[in-house]
């Protein structure tokens, strides 16, 4: 469910086939001149340029000098949506990290480049659970299963809060979607805490988040907090049979939704 990752040069397989029902995750880490080639086969893929700059070739079409971030806290990401049976080549122009977010599903949609200006940045929550949520591959992209984005917690702040879950099909109250978090901390010596729990109590864990940690969420509520003095980032990947993000708030903490509305009104 939760583990620390030690990224090596080359392809890092973080979520292996069969670990989750829908989601797989690799990260390609390259030095200048390194490249990684693959065919998307029967996968729908979101490529997210985490850091660095690269050339990307998809079925012979070139996208040059893609990426600009020195780190994941430095602005919005470049990304690609890649449907089935596409030949992809990633060539590093400088030290580079690319998240390869995958799910098996049949799709004949078109390749889509998402630029930083295309990313929708939402100011979510208030007070010490305010955070920036960045929607990268969302409903604007005609994907079949994937929803992908990034969240940044200011120092000391919470996200995925009030605690919510999405592990049961009970539309329109909730839609079951798996999720993966990949974390970074700024400065990297910092930390955060991640809780995962269920109402039944069969899961009730708290994990120490450090730079390059990974969480696989199949069920349960999953609030996360950054330590004071440190920004906390996570790439989030959602996938399920129904591609709709409908989350169910923990009834014990749902009252905070009303507080959010009151506090936002008071700021006007």
Task: Give structural notes.
By secondary structure, the chain is mainly β. The chain has one domain (2-267): Jelly Rolls. It is 4% helix and 47% strand. It is built from 1 helix and 23 strands. Strands 1-20-17-22-14-13-12 form a 7-stranded antiparallel sheet, with no helix packed on it. The model has no long low-confidence stretch (mean pLDDT 97). GO terms for molecular function: glucuronate isomerase activity. This is Myo-inositol catabolism IolB domain protein. It holds the Pfam family KduI. Keywords: Isomerase.
Give the arrangement of secondary structure elements:
Blueprint: E1 2-4, E2 10-15, E3 24-30, E4 35-39, E5 43-51, E6 54-58, E7 61-66, E8 79-82, E9 87-92, E10 96-104, E11 112-114, E12 120-124, E13 131-137, E14 147-153, E15 158-159, E16 164-165, E17 178-186, E18 192-197, E19 204-209, E20 213-217, E21 224-226, E22 231-239, E23 248-249, H1 256-267
Antiparallel strand pairs: 1-20, 2-3, 3-10, 4-9, 5-8, 5-10, 6-7, 6-9, 8-11, 12-13, 13-14, 14-22, 15-21, 16-23, 17-20, 17-22, 18-19, 18-21
Distance between the termini: 42 Å
Q: What strand line-up does the widest sheet have?
A: 1-20-17-22-14-13-12
Helix content: under 10%
Number of strands: 23
Count of individual domains: 1
Give me the strand/helix succession. EEEEEEEEEEEEEEEEEEEEEEEH
The CATH superfamily appears as: Jelly Rolls
Q: Report Rg.
A: 18 Å
**Could you name the CATH class?**
Mainly Beta
CATH topology: Jelly Rolls
Structural class: mainly beta
Main beta-sheet strand count, sense and barrel state: 7 strands, antiparallel
By DSSP (H or I, 4+ residues per run), the number of helices equals 1
Low-confidence stretches: none
Strand content: over 45%
Which architecture would the CATH scheme give at its second level? Sandwich
What form results from the Cα inertia axes?
Answer: globular
Overall pLDDT, averaged? 97
